[in-house]
Amino acid sequence: MKQVKTIITILFIGLISSIIYINQDKIISYVTNLFNKTTELYMLGIKATGDLIDEKSLGSLEDSKITGENYIIDSNYYPYYQMLNEEEKRLYKQVCANIESLKIKFIPTTDITIKEVNTVIEAVYNDHPEFFWLNTNYSYKYTEDKQCVQIILDYNETSKNIEKHKILFNETANDIIKEAYKLKSDYDKEKYVHNKIIELAEYDENSNMNQTAYSALITKKTVCAGYTRAFQYLMTKLEIPTYYVVGYANEDHAWNIVKLEDGYYNVDLTWNDQTSGTYNYFNMSDNIFSKTHTRTGMSIYLPKCNGTKYANLESNNINNNYNSNIYIYDSNDSNDNNDNNSNNIYVYDNNDSDYSTNYVIESSEENEDHSN
Asked: 325-330 and 343-349 as β-strands: parallel, antiparallel, unpaired?
């Protein structure tokens, strides 16, 4: 009986192996297409979906005919553009020009791979908070050699009456910019814009268009991407270089880097709006900020934040309050056995590398989950 079972097993394995061998090309093609079908970038909330097409279909692809060759980029305010190679930069300009014109489909003017397209879209998204009508999903068509032959953009509901929404957005933004311009130093302008956004916006992960600056300034309900992009937009208008950073802080998250007189600083408006102290994560250096925030994707190539002159100037900045301690917001406190919805804030000894010493300094049921 055992011999019969052994023979049947051997025959079954042989049959399966034969099927796999005979159809290996089809299986490899299927798996390849499966992985190419949906590609999630490092960026928050963005997805790219690719469709393989044959050579016969190339001639029927729709094209906006917008090349973007005359699109102007200022390297001081668009750092992700500077990270690209020459072919990617050409596509970057073409993407921007098509977004400004609300075009949906276009054919790249340069030979470009799927991987390079993903990089370019990430760069455009991170550099341009003014494109609030752009959705965070896009798709593309590609050939068997992984060359992208068409890009298909997606726009949110504001695109249906874009002029109306541009007026609303610009009126609110310009009111803030006008008041900020009255202040003398870039630091004072930064603080004013920071406080104004926190005053206007409320964290709400179910909010509409929450990946846009529009959600923070107009609908006033947003998540980390909205806070960050609104701050980036307003500071750029004030001619203060401010960058959008993606990374990890308990989960996927976004924050800003600001360039002031003596260097760069980290600023996290989302966490500042969720904790009791408005300036807990304001103008922090990497050596402190990196305890709670880790950059990912292209953001790892942004400048290091080592500025000191404008750090710790506010009374409730964590570095002032707790000296060598760091301040961490935890919305999923495993030590809280009585109320799973409470959000605790801990102080950790910054000199203790394994964070073995900590204590709760605040617990609030009113705080929303800060991540995103």
From this structure: antiparallel
